[in-house]
Amino acid sequence: MAQMTLNHISKRYEDEITAVSDFHLHIRDQEFLVLVGPSGCGKSTMLRMIVGLETISSGEVIIGDEVVNDVPAKDRDIAMVFQGYALYPHLNVYDNIAFALKMKKCDKHTMDCRVREVAKLMGLEYLLDRKPESLSGGERQRVALGRAIICEPRVFLMDEPLSNLDAQLRVKMRTEIIQLHQRLKTTMIYVTHDQTEAMTMADRIVVMREGVIQQVATPAEIYQHP
Ligand code: ADP
Ligand code: ADP
Predict the structure, then answer these.
(1) Any alpha helices (H) in the chain, and if so which ranges?
(2) What is the pLDDT of residues 26-40, one digit of tens each?
(3) How many CB atoms lie within 10 A of CB 216?
(4) Are 188 and 158 a contacting pair, CB within 8 Å?
(5) Nearest CA among 85, 80, 43 for reference residue 193
(6) 163 CB less than 6 Å from ligand 2?
(7) Beta-ladder partners of 189
(8) Which of 6, 114, 141, 150 pairs with 107 at a CA distance of 20 to 30 A?
(9) Which residues, other chains included, contact 40 with Cβ-Cβ below 8 Å and sequence gap of 6+?
(10) How many Å from the N-terminal Cα to the C-terminal Cα in the chain?
């Protein structure tokens, strides 16, 4: 179970820029939350604080009923996928997917089973020997997703994961991400500035502006009262 509370979170950077101001929201277990808003409104900062890559100036990130502010990123059970795929260029698909398990000193048999399971789920079984440079954009994004889910995260964060793909592939990957979310039963926070992505993927949409929450609504509510 991974319901979350983002409890009155604020972030001031050292140069006194307030990136996020009193962000307060409950997120249901397995909810698909989409975060939208203009560039610079604090979306990435919010994700980085949740995953543990950025300190919080005030407030709490609560997962289940645990405050994780002081839990290191690697122990939070949160996966994050970025806009650039950030695959390891010198490693093949197998080793890219396996990477996090190797870091955890997972035994070889368990690792091999998990990698093959994830590869199958992501349709990558026949590409395990390939290097990232020889893959298409969609295949690379699937490797990035596979690498992120190998540790069975409680929470999945995605920061504009499709913005580097062409329009046709974006539509296809949209469906794949929705299906992946349903299979994994994780809680999802997905950042995008694509209206259609937000409206088709979200259970709820959070609109941010200048570091604050401006609106929280379901796609149906936004459709009726834009
Ligand atoms: P978004 O993801 O919505 O584009 P960001 O979270 O990246 O917004 O940025 C929010 C604000 O915080 C912006 O004003 C940005 O310039 C500032 N900011 C982001 N990262 C840093 C940083 N590492 N140091 C100082 N200011 C930053
Ligand atoms: P090491 O980390 O010990 O140098 P490798 O990274 O080469 O080993 O591989 C670790 C395990 O993963 C091996 O048992 C190997 O069979 C398996 N493996 C690596 N790459 C592939 C692949 N492309 N397809 C299938 N199995 C692979």
Answers:
(1) 43-51, 93-103, 108-121, 137-149, 167-184, 195-201, 219-224
(2) 999 999 999 999 999
(3) 13
(4) yes
(5) 43
(6) no
(7) 33, 157
(8) 141
(9) none
(10) 33
What span, in angstroms and rounded, lies between the C-alpha atoms of 213 and 192?
A: 15
Regarding the beta carbon of 21 and ligand 2, being less than 6 Å apart is answered no
Nearest CA to ligand 2 atom 4: 95
Question: How many helices (H) and strands (E) would you count in the chain?
Answer: 7, 10
Q: Is the CB of 17 under 6 A from ligand 1?
A: yes
17 is written with which tokens? 């820029």
Phi-psi region of 5 (alpha: psi -120 to 50; beta: other; left: phi over 0): beta
pLDDT by residue (tens digit) across 81-135?
887 667 999 999 999 999 988 988 889 999 999 999 999 888 899 999 999 999 9
b/e burial code for range 133-154 (CB count within 10 A of at least 16 → b): eebeebbbbbbbbbbbbbbebb
What's the chain's length in residues?
226
- Please name which of 142, 166, 170, 162 lies closest in space to residue 83, comparing C-alpha atoms: 162
User: Which ligand sits closest to the CA of 35?
Assistant: 1
Helix 93-103 vs helix 137-149: crossing angle, to nearest 10: 20
User: Exposure string (b/e) for 46-75, b if CB count within 10 Å is 16 or more?
Assistant: bbbbbbbebebeebebbbeeeebeeeeeee
Q: Which tokens go with 107?
A: 């035994």
Measured between alpha carbons, how far is 7 from 60 in angstroms, rounded to an integer? Answer: 5
